Amino acid sequence: GPGDADAVLAGLDPEQRAVATALHGPVCVLAGAGTGKTRAITHRIAYGVRSGVYRPQQVLAVTFTARAAGEMRGRLRQLGAEGVQARTFHSAALRQLQYFWPRAVGGEVPRLLERKVQLVAEAAGRCGMRVQRTELRDLTGEIEWSKVTQIVPEDYPAAVAKSGREAPRDAAEISRVYGIYEQLKRDRGVIDFEDVLLLTAAILEDRPEIAEQVRSQYQHFTVDEYQDVSPLQQRLLDQWAGPGASLCVVGDASQTIYSFTGATPDYLLGFRSRHPDATVVKLVRDYRSTPQVVHLANGLLAQARGEAAQHRLELVSQREGGPEPVYTEYPDEPAEAEGTAQRIRELMARGVRASEIAVLFRTNGQSEVYEQALADLGLPYQLKGAERFFERPEIREAGTLLRGAARAGGADTLAVDGPELAAHVRAVLASRGFSAEPPAGSGAVRERWESLAALVRLAEEFETQQRAAGLPADLAAYVAELDARANAQHAPAVEGVTLASLHAAKGLEWDAVFLVGLTEGMVPITYAKTDEQVEEERRLLYVGVTRAREHLSLSWALARSPGGRAGRTPSRFLDGLRPGSAVRGGARAGGRAGVEGGTERSGRRNRGPVKCRVCGRVLSEAVERKLRRCEGCPSSMDEALYERLRAWRGETARAHGVPA
Ligand code: ATP
Ligand code: MG
To answer: In terms of domains, do 333 and 377 share one?
Structure first.
């Protein structure tokens, strides 16, 4: 009943509640990072469903990434609103395309082009152009930009001139390559990522009866991260949400970070004029970050210029005070990575979970040195963006094994009371060499282990949930859950420090965030030339800063490699924000050399005094130094982390009838 639905509103402030209860008609939420936009729309959907106003299958929640979609489905389930579609533009469009292609066009949907850059290279070759590999990426980027901004090949030269965008080559040449690329795709019967949206929009526009059918299915739409919608996505949204539909969009113009791909905050900022009857709500209370983090975020925005900056909203932290952001200058990149890994280890020793820590960088190429540094200290990590959990070989293999075990009649013997089923998942994996303890050492082996461990954890959670709901929790049910999650790309959380690009981090949050490589040339990146491009880089840093709940670290290195020329300077965006003297990081011999301009340095590493990894006290006793822990310290982070894993080993052994 309605009283039941009201429970969904309990965790919201008055403005968020206004969003959640405006179930009909256009709603637009303009608000800064961490103010609860995503939370407000999630609760709005749950309120709509639980009050009986929305039928779950009539709701489409559009999110920016598959991961965000998975998280939203999880939250909705917790709020008692299952069955709602939460998808990216792309996945929603692809699903529709598959559904109505046979009727609209005939046959099956063409295959998705896998090697786009290669096809662009071929097109360039046919134009008699010689292009380098890096240039190819730029060319591909231009074609993608043209498609999402709906520019056909012939119009490219005029459009690029008008946009103020710098074309990587002669515009007429790019226009020719683009035309031939489109032709090659048609000849081979393949479509690219952008075509999925283009074709869906085109079919809906051309075939009113199909559009009618789609519109009668979905009635209620929410769009998260609306500041980064492209003209092509907007066109699709216009087709989906007909005149009678209810549309709710949320966004933050200060977080527009994809305009280089054709996204624009214009639709967010112009929403009210397009929908004069819209309910417009502003949120300013920041629930995510400490006042210290919020202060820095506000400081960054205060220096922003340009169109989006006119719509900035000062954030007000709702949280208790925390540590000040830490600024660290390192002599070189390996020292920065090593120093970062050490600080991560200290945080973990103080009880911060690895999955609550992120290292964020500007380009994916920066990731490797951090992977190495974390692996050196034996710390688990996961790469974001590259994840595709269910496609990992170890996960596919595990799936096959579990399915086999479920079919082999395991199901009836496993459906017993007590914490056994999860135990059988462990047993099945153990039979293929999955150890209860994480392997020591290197990255890839450790990553593989962490993803299997995530499967086991998922089994435990699943079992608890199913039992609480009085539902079957046997192996067959778990395998079905895995399949459902794989279809929905809803990966379980893998325990480990997240390594991600700033772009991939939007919408997410962690207790501790390390923003690394903050030098001129990285943030802003060298190729950001126009004022608008530089402003987008500043917004990217704002997105990074606002991912942190509590601990925020900002660092940079003066040289690329040890002994290299120390010519780098910290990002201009930190001017006036960072204290006059940053901490000098890097315990390497001659660590200050870079700052003073000299570069002579011995290669020998001096790691400084040995400190307890739990309390940080400098250790003097030889035994304690070896253990890196003082005698008095009750538990180390390793123990805390691996305690559960030891328990698994015992249970796995028992499942095999072996005394532990
Ligand atoms: P971003 O712009 O980064 O996407 P957002 O505006 O979508 O941020 P959310 O992710 O929804 O913000 O919320 C930020 C954090 O604050 C989350 O941990 C959320 O659970 C919490 N939060 C939001 N609103 C409230 C509230 N009313 N009470 C308590 N916690 C809240
Ligand atoms: Mg959000």
So the answer is: yes
